[in-house]
From TrEMBL:
Family classification: Belongs to the small GTPase superfamily. Rab family.
GO terms for biological process, alphabetical: protein transport
GO MF annotations, alphabetized: GTP binding; GTPase activity
Keyword annotations of the record: GTP-binding, Lipoprotein, Methylation, Nucleotide-binding, Prenylation, Protein transport, Transport
Superkingdom, taxonomy of origin: Eukaryota
Protein name from the UniProt record: Rab GTPase
Cell inner membrane recorded as keyword: no
Residues of the full protein shown: 1 to 173 of 212
Amino acid sequence: MTTTEEKQYKILLIGDSDVGKTSIVKRFSDDEFKEDLLCTIGVEFKMKSLNIDDQNITLCIWDTAGQEKFRALISSYYRGAHGIILTYDVTKRETFNNLQYWLNEIESFSTRSDVVMLLVGNKIDKENREVSREEGAEFAKKKAMLFIEASAKTKMGIQQAFEELAHKILETP
Ligand code: GDP
Ligand code: MG
């Protein structure tokens, strides 16, 4: 029996520390965990298969191991990424204000001009919101990013986030 080769896409998570990047990946990937040599450079990644538009694809999701705290993500983290999930915490305005910093990093290090970007406003289950949905949507529109609000805690928006990103990647010529 032959196995069909599934297309693989590299997806990154970036954004300030504590916004919920790792929680988003864990929630989405359902504890399918794979550690590999990449961990030696302080990156974890998880593989997750998805069926999008009648195609089976595999997402290789790269998550930082805390280096973003020091704004020290190395350029190889970005290399070859098909999709980037830029995350902020809707209850912490500072993390929203810092989005431009991360966009500058993407601009400097991304090796693909057609990289698909998705902005995620996370932690919408919390009550002390500091960034409105409209502000998030407007910023995303201005920067040509997809946008979704989500909660890694309640699952809200998480599956949809990855599906929309994958859909857009497949659509990109
Ligand atoms: P990272 O540093 O961006 O990877 O953030 P983590 O995933 O480590 O999450 C930081 C903290 O926020 C942890 O205490 C999580 O439990 C919490 N957290 C993450 N996502 C959510 C969410 O959607 N809702 C709530 N209430 N807490 C969250
Ligand atoms: Mg993390």
